[in-house]
Amino acid sequence: MTQPEPQPKVEAQRIRIFDTTLRDGEQSPGVALNHTQKLEIAHTLARLGVDVIEAGFPIASPGDLEGVSRIAREVRGPVIAGLARANKADIEAAAKAVEAAAKPRIHTFIATSPIHMAKKLQLEPDAVVERAVMAVKLARSFVDDVEFSAEDATRSDWAFLSRIFRAAVEAGATTINVPDTVGYTTPDEMRDLFAFLKAELPDHVYLSSHCHDDLGMAVANSIAAVEGGARQVECTINGIGERAGNASLEEIVMAFHTRRDHYPFETGIRSREIYRASRLVSRLSGMPVQPNKAIVGDNAFAHESGIHQDGVIKARETYEIMNAELVGREAAVLVMGKHSGRAAFRKALTDLGYQDIPDDKVQYLFGRFKDLADRKGQLYADDLRALVDARTDVPQT
Ligand code: KIV
Ligand code: ZN
To answer: pLDDT (tens digit, 9 = 90+) per residue, 36-80?
Structure first.
C-alpha cells in the first residue's frame, strides 16, 4: 500500500532560493575554494535550480574578485550576486565583479543592532541610515537589482529596522534581507518580525531571510520567516557557513516539498540534484557531512532496527516520509547489524543471490549473524557471504 501524495490546500507561492554556499559557506573556518572549484560548484547550483548565487565578497581579495567575475562570465540561469559593505570601494569591486553576468546583483549591508552600531561601526543610527542610502544609490548606479541587508537585524530595534529599510527601498533597493546574523532569534519572533516588515514596506519589495544555526533553529526560523512574508530564503548546501553554519538549503526545500499539504510554498529546486550538490560541496570544501544530517547524511535513509526494517520491507512509507530517489540517492538501505531482524536478514541474503536457502538453515545462520554483529557492529555483503559460504550444516539436535 502506498500513501496518498500530500495535496496542497491552496495554490503554492513561489519562494526564491538564494544560495550563499560560495560566500557565507566559504566563511566556514578552514574552507578556501579555488576558482575552478568555485566555478564547478556554481554550475552545479545552476543545475540544481537556485534563483540566486552569491558568488563571493569581491573586495575580500583579488582572488575573490576574479572568482566572482568568472562565475558572472560563465554561469547562466541564476542571478549572480556579489557582496559589499556599505562603502564606495566595496561596491565598486562588487560592480566590477558581476558586470559580465546576464543577471547581476549587488548585495550591500550595514549593521543595525545597538551593539554593532556603537561598538563595531562607532556610528550614530542617523549616520548608519545615511550610509545605507549612499550605498544603495551607488549600487543602483551600476545595476538594477540591489539587495540591502541589515546585519544583526534580529537584535535590532524594529522601528529602526523599518526606518532604514524604507530609506533603502526609496534609494532603490529591490530586495530587503533580514539576517539573523548570530542565530539568536526564535521561529515565532521571526514570523512576527516579517509580518511587521511586510506591513511597513511597499508590496513590490522582496523580503528575504538569512538565518544562522547557533541554536540549531536556522531552518525553522527560515520557514517561519516565509510564513511571515519572506519570499526569498538565503541558505547553503549542507548548511555550511560561519560558526554553526547557515540554514541548510536541502532541509528547507524538502520541508516545503514533503509537507506541501501544510506549507503553501514551492521552490524551483530540482530535488533530484540535491545529493550530487551535497557530495560535491562536501568534497571540495573538505567539510564532511555528519552521518545523521537530514536529507544528505549517510544514515538519513538507512534503517537498522529489526522493527523498522520489517516495516520498510512491507511498505517503505512505514518509516520513510520521502523517497531517497527524490533527492537523487539510492533507495533506502537496510543496515545489517545486531538490531536487524529476521526479515531484513532473509532479504539481504536474497539480494545477494541466496534465494533458495531452507528456512531452518536461515534460522541457524541468523543466530551466527547475531553473534558476529555483536562483535563487529555493522556487517557488510562480504560478511554475509562468508557466513553463508562457511561450513554451515545445521547442527542436528
Ligand atoms: O549573517 C549576516 O549578517 C550576513 C550578511 C552579510 C548578510 O552574512
Ligand atoms: Zn551570514
So the answer is: 999 999 999 999 999 999 999 999 999 999 999 999 999 999 999
The pTM of this model reads 0.92
The CA 179 to ligand 1 mean position distance, Å, reads 6
Would you state the cell numbers that stand for residue 28, as one nine-digit string? 566556514
Distance 92 CA to ligand 1 centre (A): 19
Find cell 562468508 and name the residue: 386
Q: What is the DSSP string of 270-338?
A: -GGGHHHHHHHHHHHHT-PPPTT-TTTSTTTTEE-SHHHHHHHHH-GGGT-SS-GGGGT-PSPEE-BST
Helix, strand, coil percent content, the chain, rounded in steps of 5? 50, 15, 35
Q: What DSSP character marks residue 352?
A: T
Chain centroid to Cα 118, Å, comes to 33
Ligand 2 centroid, distance to 247 Cα (angstroms): 10
C-alpha to C-alpha distance for 168 and 149, rounded to whole angstroms: 9
Least confidently predicted of 4-8, 135-139, 348-352: 4-8
What is the per-residue DSSP string for 121-181?
A: I---HHHHHHHHHHHHHHHHTT-S-EEEEEETGGGS-HHHHHHHHHHHHHHT-SEEEEEET
Q: Give the β-pairing of 16-19 and 13-14.
A: unpaired
Q: Which ipTM value was assigned to this complex?
A: 0.99
Q: Which listed ligand is nearest to 176 at the C-alpha? A: 1
Binding residues for Mn(2+): 24, 210, 212, 246
* Cα distances (Å, whole numbers) of residue 263 to 11, 40, 177, 234: 10, 32, 22, 18
Name the amino acid, one letter, at 80.
Answer: I
Taking the CA of 86 as reference, the closest ligand is 1
Residues of the chain with pLDDT > 70: what percent?
A: 96
With a Cβ cut-off of 6 Å, ligand 1 is lined by: 24, 109, 149, 151, 177, 179, 181, 210, 212
**Do the beta carbons of residue 279 and residue 53 sit within 8 Å?**
no
